[in-house]
What does this fold into?
Amino acid sequence: MNDKSGATRRTVLTGVTGLAAAATIPLVAATASAGDGFSAVDQPRVYSCDEWGARPPNGTPVIVQSRPNKIIVHHTAFPNTTDYSLDYAFQNSRDIQDLHMDDNGWSDSGQHFTNSRGGFLTEGRRGSLDALLGGTTMIQGAHCVGQNSQAIGIENDGSYHLGAPVPAAQWDSLVQFCAFICRQYGVPAEEIHGHKDFNSTLCPGGLWDRLPELRAAVAGLLG
Ligand SMILES: [Zn+2]
It folds into this structure.
C-alpha cells in the first residue's frame, strides 16, 4: 500500500531501502522463458515507464540475478476512483512514484507493477518490465519488507480494506497478469500472496480474502 493518509506506509515499509548499491551487471538479454511446463499465457499489455512518463530513478536499479519465487498483491489505499481511463492509470503511476521518491525518499516506485481500477497495467520500478520479459532476473523492489529481492509486487489501485468491491476489469487484469508472471518466472499459482502475509498491514484488504480465488483462476490459465 502507498496510502497518503499518514504514517502507515512508513510503518509498513520502513527499512526497505531503495537502491543504495548500484548494480554494475547489465540486464540479461531477453531470452525465451523456460515456461516450466505451463501452458502459454497471453502477454497482457503493460505500459512502460517511458509510456506513462516516469521520472528517472535516483541511481541504478539493482538487478537480482535470479527469478522471483512469489507474487505479492497490494492495494494502494488511494481513494476508489471511478475514472477508469488510461490517462488516470498513467497519472496514478506518476502519483505513486512521486510519493515513493519525494515522501519516502526511495530511488523509484517501490512496486514492480501497478494495476489500475480500469484494469490498465503499468510498469512500476524501472527495468521491471524488461526483466519480466527476459524471465531470468528481477529488479529489486521496495514493496514488502523481507521480500523485495524475491517477490514481484503488484499495486492494485484502490482501498479494499473497508469492503469496497474490486472492479471486474481490475480483477480480470490481475488474474491475467499474475498468470503471465507465473509463466515467465516459473512461479506456481500457490505462491501468490498478500502484503499482510509478511508485514503488519491491512494491505491488500478484501483482495487478500480473494487470494484463493485468484490462485485458482491463475492455475486454470496455466493449465
Ligand atoms: Zn501493500
